[in-house]
Specification:
Strand content: under 5%
Helix content: over 70%
Shape: globular
Radius of gyration: 19 Å
Mean pLDDT: 85
Number of domains: 1
Structural class: mainly alpha
Order of helices and strands: HHHHHHHHHHHHHHH
Largest sheet: none
Length: 290
């Protein structure tokens, strides 16, 4: 298998892994508070990453030139996960995933404003199309004939906003710290923050619950690891549009595990969001040279 095909296979596997994690979270929200699930997700992911670095490097790459920025980035990820997981307690997985895909579109807009990156008219068009798809997926009353939308559909939109800022900080840290340091810090502040609230929400897990809580962290770590391997083998322009295949996994999981069939608003909104995202992800043509 050549590098590009391997990259495609790896990113599809990564997205399927993230969907498995989200499915498990939605199942566990019936027995545990969301902050406790986030604690397990970040703690066991941090421990698995730390063990991997200790084995492969013989040390942990803690030294950072921007620890405050690293901590802020980690807390943003915790907030994004908390909002998304809270949404899963109320709305179908496919709906939450579709709305959450506004994040890449918001990242492009923030990059233009914050990082002063040049964004072509085609990509701005993709952002507008994608945001229109988000509006469809949100089911506003003026589109659905007066039917009220569930308040929880706004939570994945908050996830998208926090994730966009998280991605911008990730780009800034590329020029500051070793990527391995950033990977290690990803769950560090989030683990501390979620640990502080456990006395308020803790439900003692049963013997069969502990493996599921550990699995949350392992699935998160595995998904991010597969993403890193994918982007090491294939260009971003090829892999980025494939991120929308997670909508397929989420829809299948919603049907198979929860018997939640997506309605027409979710399907149309998801297609429009994906179309806008592909426009954003496609590389710009370089001017011809003589």
């Amino acid at each position: 298998m050549n590098g590009r095909l391997a990259g495609v296979a790896l990113i599809v596997a990564a997205l399927a892994t993230f969907t498995c994690m989200d499915t498990l979270i939605k199942l566990l929200t019936a027995r545990f508070a969301v902050p406790q699930l986030m604690w397990a997700r970040f703690l066991f992911s941090l421990l698995s990453v730390a063990v991997m670095f200790q084995v492969t490097m013989g040390r942990l790459p803690w030294r950072s030139r921007a620890p405050l920025l690293q901590g802020t980035r980690s807390l943003l990820l915790a907030g994004a996960n908390w909002l998304f997981s809270s949404a899963l307690a109320h709305i179908p997985l496919a709906d939450a995933t579709a709305i959450g895909f506004a994040s890449p579109l918001l990242t492009v807009a923030l990059a233009a404003v914050w990082l002063r990156e040049r964004v072509s008219p085609r990509r701005w068009c993709g952002v507008l199309i994608g945001l229109l798809g988000v509006m469809v997926a949100l089911r506003p009353p003026f589109l659905t004939g007066g039917a009220s939308m569930h308040w929880a559909v706004l939570l994945p939109l908050g996830t998208a906003a926090l994730s966009a800022v998280y991605q911008i900080l990730t780009r800034k840290l590329v020029t500051v710290d070793d990527p391995r340091t950033t990977i290690l810090y990803t769950g560090f502040a989030a683990t501390i923050a979620t640990s502080l609230v456990q006395p308020l929400v803790w439900t003692w897990p049963g013997a069969w619950d502990w493996p599921l809580l550990v699995a949350l962290g392992l699935l998160g770590a595995l998904g991010h690891g597969l993403l890193v391997l994918a982007y090491a083998r294939a260009p971003v322009s090829l892999l980025a549009p494939l991120s929308y295949t997670q909508l397929i996994w989420a829809t299948l999981a919603s049907i198979a595990v929860f018997a939640d069939w997506p309605d027409i608003w979710t399907l149309v909104g998801a297609l429009v969001i994906a179309g806008g995202g592909v426009l954003v992800a496609l590389p710009d043509r370089r001017p011809a040279t003589n």
